[in-house]
Design a protein that fits this description.
The protein has 268 residues and is an alpha+beta fold. Helix content is 31%, strand content 13%. It is found in: Membrane.
Length: 268
């Protein structure tokens, strides 16, 4: 019912449409519009898909997918009558149309608040391990706000670029276990990113732009993260106008099971 309450307030090309629902006794169902390409997750790191197969989409398509998701989030944060914070942005919750138009889905953890309400009161941390902003675990990192979705978006975009999970416990080199740390080091030193299927200068520009946006989005201090409107401006603008962000607090979090699951944990 939380999802019905949230999604029924939306109407946007990058938000999935809820056609109907059933809430009768033990019969519970949400009926979305049909999305023939399924979730973004399978194009990134589905075990049944050949390694790096997601890049068969092409960097231009991945760029447009990232921009579409950003527009959907900006609409949720600023375009609705009530501000909607999603709190569970991840590849599994992004559905793709026949033409690979991305649509944000799964509003089960969403929180609806007034548009002028910048800080949200929460009893627990909502989201999925690996995508949750640091501040939802410790108040030392700041208050919970729409910037939590910005952080999750950045972590998801990093997986889109790398074609791998951000935490890879199978990595041979320990410096490559935590992908955000590895990729920041290479960007900082001007080294090649060694990403698959980057074959021309146009793709290199797209990838560099996406990575700079990512590193702004995953800043530990929420005040350093851009709003989604700024993210859109950066993605649509020139890479030459973008500044390298401050180095966020990047370190490998404790190893956890490889399957990602939605969590709702209490904050003491």
């Amino acid at each position: 019912m939380n999802e019905v309450a949230a999604i029924s307030r939306t109407s946007h090309v990058n938000i999935v449409s809820l056609l109907d629902y059933c809430f009768e006794g033990s019969k519970r169902a949400l009926i979305y519009e049909f999305m023939p390409n399924g979730s973004l997750e399978k194009f990134i790191f589905d075990a049944s898909t050949p390694k790096n197969d997601h890049h068969n989409l092409g960097w231009e398509t991945l760029d447009q997918i990232s921009l579409g998701i950003a527009r959907g989030l900006e609409y949720l944060h600023r375009g609705c009558k009530m501000r909607i914070l999603h709190f569970d942005i991840k590849p599994r919750n992004i559905l793709l149309s026949e033409k690979f138009t991305p649509k944000i889905s799964d509003f089960g953890l969403a929180k609806i608040c007034n548009t002028n309400e910048s800080i949200v009161s929460m009893l627990g941390a909502r989201g999925t391990a690996g995508y949750i902003a640091p501040k939802v675990f410790s108040r030392n990192f700041g208050k919970v706000s729409h910037k939590s979705d910005v952080y999750s978006y950045g972590m998801m975009l990093l997986e889109m670029v790398g074609g791998r999970r951000n935490i890879d416990i199978a990595a041979e080199n320990t410096s490559e276990i935590y992908f955000p740390h590895w990729i920041y080091q290479r960007l900082e030193h001007g080294e090649e990113l060694r990403l698959q299927s980057v074959t021309n200068e146009e793709d290199k520009v797209r990838v560099r732009k996406m990575i700079i946006v990512i590193l702004w989005c995953i800043q530990t201090d929420p005040s350093n993260r851009p709003a989604m409107k700024e993210v859109i401006d950066m993605l649509e603008g020139s890479v030459d106008s973008l500044q390298i962000p401050p180095k966020p607090y990047l370190s490998s979090p404790p190893k956890s099971p490889t399957n990602s699951s939605t969590t709702l944990v209490s904050i003491q």
